[in-house]
Specification:
four-stranded mixed beta sheet, single chain, 2 domains, mainly alpha, binds glutathione, Glutathione S-transferase Yfyf (Class Pi), Chain A, domain 2, 4 strands
């Protein structure tokens, strides 16, 4: 299996961390969208030119982290899957993942608003809203989080997503926007990053 994309992308890192938690062998090829040659290669894997892209051992190509996670969950089976099969538990975890995805996507949009637009074209009210939506999403999940994991005794995909997203948001969130108050997720990130599946995939943006 091949995972395309750098671990600086939280959507790539959630896949890498999940692969490691599942003890699945894979190769990571760091195709960066900011590099023209690498972007061209990435487009041959994903017509959108976006990471993560994922190649199965059978040569099938999957894009979008949620679809890749679905593939990996089916590969390892319901006993090992980080998204529970129990009807109610699954709904709970999917709700949490939905909020976390949204919170992360809003920060990605905020970064692009600043990095991709000429300075005089940045729309500050939209940028403020994006930062607020990330804050609201992360705090909503923090409010319902249990310990040691978000849903209690067992790690789920909500934990993987919360940790890799919080770690990524912390790296890019400006100091002059309202701080995210999520003490439980901060503690969760510290605990999780002592596990190799998380620490091996931690990467600082720009490196
Ligand atoms: N919904 C997608 C989001 C992926 C995404 O936003 N990837 C970013 C990097 S963090 C990217 O490749 N951006 C380049 C682009 O969209 O052109 C997923 O879950 O995989």
């Amino acid at each position: 299996m091949i995972l395309y994309g750098s671990y600086t992308s939280p959507f790539v890192r959630r896949i890498a961390t999940t692969l490691k938690l599942y003890d699945l062998e894979f190769t990571n090829i760091e195709l960066k969208t900011s590099n023209a040659a690498q972007l061209s290669e990435l487009r041959s894997k994903n017509p959108l030119g976006r990471v993560p892209a994922f190649e199965t051992d059978a040569g099938a190509l999957l894009i979008d982290s949620i679809a890749i996670l679905d593939y990996l969950d089916r590969l390892v089976g319901i006993k090992k899957s980080l998204i529970p099969s129990d009807f109610e538990q699954r709904t709970t975890v999917m709700t949490q993942i939905g909020i976390l995805n949204g919170a992360m996507e809003k920060t990605v949009s905020a970064v692009y608003e600043v990095e991709k637009r000429p300075e005089d074209k940045i729309h500050q009210p939209w940028l403020d809203q994006l930062h607020q939506q990330t804050k609201d999403g992360m705090e909503a999940v923090d409010n319902l989080a249990m310990t040691p994991w978000i849903n209690g005794e067992k790690i789920t995909q909500a934990d993987v997503s919360a940790v890799v997203f919080l770690d990524a948001i912390k790296q890019v969130r400006p100091n002059d926007v309202p701080a995210i108050e999520c003490p439980k997720l901060v503690a969760l990130s510290m605990r999780a990053n002592s596990m190799s599946a998380f620490s091996d995939t931690y990467k600082v943006r720009g490196h």
